[in-house]
């Protein structure tokens, strides 16, 4: 029996994996999701995006679960229920921001549908430039734009708990920042590079792998009966947790190194090709 014949749950990342370059969904990927649902698979999206910035098209497809913020928030679409996990409190955020300042980084906070850019006064011009480019990216990728506010004094900001803290800087600065955060006593945070210039930090017990395990428990299936697709370092816990792991050809080096299989790039509809050539082909003989 092929290992793909045991699969019951299929999970995929969005950006760089399932979505096209401009943030839309190809007809090939759409048709594949409908075909998988007809075949009886449980389907999940597990992304680093907040729920509000996930394309509406995703909710028109038969996904059983949509997970945002790398596992912090889970939407059970069948029962229309939302489950949330622990967030970072203000003391955590201040601690992380201070480490970021030492490593010449801009801090990006997502709170509800607002986005905050926090930086030293001398980096304000870079923060404004970054946000301008980011808003252009949102338009190009058809993402819902968040309200952006700037601050040079985090301690005076009135904010509640936040799902994740992001840092923007040169890759070398972010690796130093990541190493310093990972060296903190008791390792209270989980860090991962989503792109060369983008580092994300969350509570240590929240990641995409834990989200996948939660879904498997809800569906009463063994974690070995899952397959996942991803490209960023935030996908590594999910890939490690799943029975079969697939990295896209465009994935970051660390992600590709731990994957069981490499699918074609997302630019070539790699998700569609792998699912049809491996999972569906072997299931239907």
Q: Can you put this structure into words, describing what you see?
A:
The protein folds into 2 domains: about 5-85 and about 205-285, HAD superfamily/HAD-like (Rossmann fold), CATH 3.40.50; about 90-205, 2-Layer Sandwich (Hypothetical Protein, Haloacid Dehalogenase-like Hydrolase, Chain: A, domain 2), CATH 3.30.1240. By secondary structure, the protein is of the alpha/beta class. The protein starts with 8 loop residues before the first strand and ends with a helix. It contains 9 helices and 14 strands. The protein has an 8-stranded mixed beta sheet, sandwiched between helices. Helix content is about 35%, strand content about 25%. The chain has helices at about 25-40, 55-60, 90-100, 125-140, 170-180, 210-220, 235-240, 255-260, 270-285; strands at about 10, 40-45, 65-70, 75, 80-85, 105-110, 115-120, 145-150, 165-170, 190-195, 200-205, 225-230, 245-250, 260-265. Residues about 135-140 have low confidence and may be disordered. It is globular and about 60 Å long.
Main sheet record: 8 strands, mixed
Q: What is the CATH T-level topology of the largest domain?
A: Rossmann fold
> What is the CATH-assigned architecture of the largest domain?
3-Layer(aba) Sandwich
The CA-CA distance between the termini, in Å, is 11 Å
Radius of gyration: 19 Å
The CATH class name of the largest domain reads Alpha Beta
Q: What oligomerization state is this entry in?
A: single chain
Mean pLDDT: 89
- Classified in CATH, the superfamily of the largest domain is HAD superfamily/HAD-like
Alpha plus pi helix count: 9
Percent helix range: 25-40%
Class computed from helices, strands and strand pairing: alpha/beta
Spans with pLDDT under 50 lasting ≥5 residues?
Answer: 135-140
User: What portion of residues belong to β-strands?
Assistant: 15-25%
């Amino acid at each position: 029996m092929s290992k793909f014949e045991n699969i019951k749950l299929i999970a995929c990342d969005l950006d760089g994996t399932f979505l096209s370059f401009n943030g839309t969904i190809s007809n090939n990927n759409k048709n594949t999701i409908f075909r998988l649902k007809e075949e009886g698979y449980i389907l999940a999206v597990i992304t680093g995006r907040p729920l509000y910035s996930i394309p509406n098209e995703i909710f028109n497809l038969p996904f059983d679960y949509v997970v945002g913020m790398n596992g912090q928030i889970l939407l059970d679409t069948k029962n229309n229920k939302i489950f949330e996990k622990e967030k970072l409190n203000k003391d955590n955020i201040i601690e992380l921001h201070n480490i970021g300042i030492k490593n010449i980084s801009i801090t990006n906070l997502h709170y509800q549908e607002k986005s905050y850019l926090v930086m030293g006064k001398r980096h304000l011009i870079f923060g404004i430039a970054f946000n301008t480019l980011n808003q252009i990216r949102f338009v190009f990728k058809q993402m819902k734009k968040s309200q952006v506010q700037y601050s040079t004094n985090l301690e005076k900001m009135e904010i509640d708990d936040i799902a994740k803290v992001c840092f923007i800087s040169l890759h070398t600065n972010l690796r130093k920042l990541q190493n310093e955060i990972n060296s903190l006593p008791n390792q209270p945070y989980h860090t991962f590079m989503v792109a060369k210039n983008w580092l994300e930090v969350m509570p240590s017990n929240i990641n995409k792998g834990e989200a996948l395990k939660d879904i498997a428990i809800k569906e009463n299936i063994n974690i070995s009966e899952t397959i996942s697709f991803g490209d960023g370092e935030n996908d590594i816990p999910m890939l490690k947790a799943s029975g079969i792991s697939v990295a896209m050809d465009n994935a970051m080096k660390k992600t590709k190194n731990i994957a069981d299989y490499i699918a074609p790039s997302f630019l070539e509809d790699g998700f569609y090709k792998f699912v049809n050539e491996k999972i569906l082909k072997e299931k239907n003989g």
